[in-house]
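testing teh design pipeline on a random one, pls ignore if ur not involved
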C-alpha cells in the first residue's frame, strides 16, 4: 500500500503505533515495525540513557525503521534529542510544544520529524518550522488530548497544510482507517488497539480493562488544569474528578497521579492506576499480535476503499 506516508518513512503500510509512555517500549515498537508499520518508542520522561538502550534493543529485533516520541516538556528532551541523532533513529514524533529548536539538528541528520497536533494553527506552525508530516490527533484518543474531534480536525488540517497528514484518535479497525483516508489523511496512528497487542508488555489486568470497556467507559480528567487526559473510568478517575470539582490545586492533582500510569502498566493496579485508553476501547476486544492487527486492518480497509 503506497501513500505519501509509506514513501516518506520507507515502510510497507501507513500505520503508526503512537508513542506511549511506559507502553511503547522496544518489544511493541519492534513488533509493529517488523509487521510493516512504524513502531515508536515513547520516551516520555525517561532519561536519555534509557532511551538509547530502548533503541538498541529494538534494533536487535528489527532492521526496519523505528521512531521515538519526544515529549518536549520533558527536562531530558535536549539529551534525548541528541541520542536520536547518535543512534540513527529514522523518525521522531513530538508532543507538548514546538520542536523548532531541534529541527536543524534532526533535519541535518536525515531524521523525519512528525509533530502531533490538535489544531490547525499548530499544524501550520509545524509546517513552517520544517515538519515532514503531522499527526492530527482528535480528542477521542487515549492519553493527553486536545478539544477537536478526529472527524472535524483531520479535514481542516488537510486543507491547511501541504505536508502529509496522519490521522489519530478513535481509529481501531479497517473502517476507521478507510474513513481517515476519506478525510484526506495519508496514514493513521493508533494507540489503544496496540495497548492490548500480544507483544505489548502492559499488565494483563490493564489489557482486560481495555478489552471489556464499552463505548462510554472512558473519562477525561484534568479539564480544569488545562491538561486533559483520557483514560478508563476507575477509582482513580472518580477521586480525581471529585478533587477537581472541589477546586484542588494543580499540585494536589499531580500528586494523586504521580507514577499512576506505571502502576497500571507494570503492576496491573487497575484501581489506583491510570488506564490511558481512547473511546475506541469499546471496539478493541481481542489480544492479537501486531502483525495480525495490521494485516486485519489493511485487508478490511482495502476492501472498503476499493468498493
Ligand atoms: C497508554 C497511552 C499512552 C500514551 N502516551 C503518549 C505519549 O507519551 N506521547 C504521545 O505523544 N502520545 C501518547 N499517547 C497517544 C497515542 O500516541 C495516540 O496518538 C493515541 O492513542 C491515538 O488514539 P487512540 O487511542 O484512539 O488510538 C498515549 C496513548 C495511550 C493509549
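output:
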Amino acid at each position: 500500500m503506497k501513500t505519501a506516508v509509506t514513501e516518506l518513512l520507507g515502510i510497507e503500510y501507513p500505520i503508526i503505533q503512537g508513542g506511549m509512555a511506559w507502553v511503547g517500549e522496544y518489544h511493541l515498537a519492534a513488533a509493529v515495525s517488523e509487521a510493516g508499520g512504524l513502531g515508536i518508542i515513547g520516551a516520555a520522561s525517561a532519561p536519555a540513557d534509557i532511551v538509547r538502550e530502548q533503541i538498541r534493543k529494538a534494533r536487535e529485533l528489527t532492521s526496519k525503521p523505528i521512531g521515538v516520541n519526544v515529549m518536549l516538556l520533558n527536562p531530558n528532551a535536549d539529551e534525548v534529542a541528541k541520542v536520536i541523532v547518535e543512534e540513527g533513529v529514522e523518525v521522531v514524533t513530538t508532543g507538548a510544544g514546538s520542536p523548532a529548536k531541534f529541527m536543524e539538528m534532526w533535519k541535518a541528520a536525515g531524521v523525519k520529524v512528525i509533530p502531533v497536533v490538535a489544531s490547525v494553527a499548530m499544524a501550520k506552525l509545524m509546517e513552517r518550522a520544517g515538519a515532514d508530516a503531522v499527526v492530527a490527533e482528535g480528542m477521542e484518543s487515549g492519553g493527553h488530548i486536545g478539544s477537536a474531534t478526529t472527524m472535524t480536525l483531520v479535514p481542516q488540517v488537510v486543507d491547511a497544510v501541504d505536508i502529509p497528514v496522519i490521522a489519530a484518535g478513535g481509529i481501531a479497525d479497517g473502517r476507521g482507517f478507510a474513513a481517515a483516508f476519506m478525510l484526506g489523511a495519508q496514514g493513521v496512528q493508533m494507540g489503544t488497539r496496540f495497548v492490548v497487542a500480544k507483544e505489548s508488555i502492559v499488565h494483563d489486568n490493564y489489557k482486560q480493562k481495555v478489552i471489556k470497556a464499552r463505548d462510554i467507559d472512558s473519562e477525561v480528567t484534568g479539564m480544569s488544569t488545562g491538561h486533559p487526559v483520557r483514560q478508563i473510568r476507575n477509582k482513580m478517575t472518580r477521586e480525581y474528578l471529585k478533587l477537581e470539582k472541589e477546586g484542588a490545586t494543580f499540585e494536589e492533582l499531580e500528586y494523586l497521579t504521580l507514577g499512576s500510569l506505571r502502576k497500571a502498566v507494570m503492576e496491573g493496579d487497575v484501581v489506583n492506576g491510570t488506564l490511558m485508553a481512547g473511546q475506541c476501547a469499546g471496539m478493541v476486544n481481542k489480544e492479537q499480535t501486531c502483525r495480525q492487527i495490521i494485516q486485519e486492518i489493511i485487508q478490511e480497509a482495502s476492501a472498503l476503499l476499493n468498493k
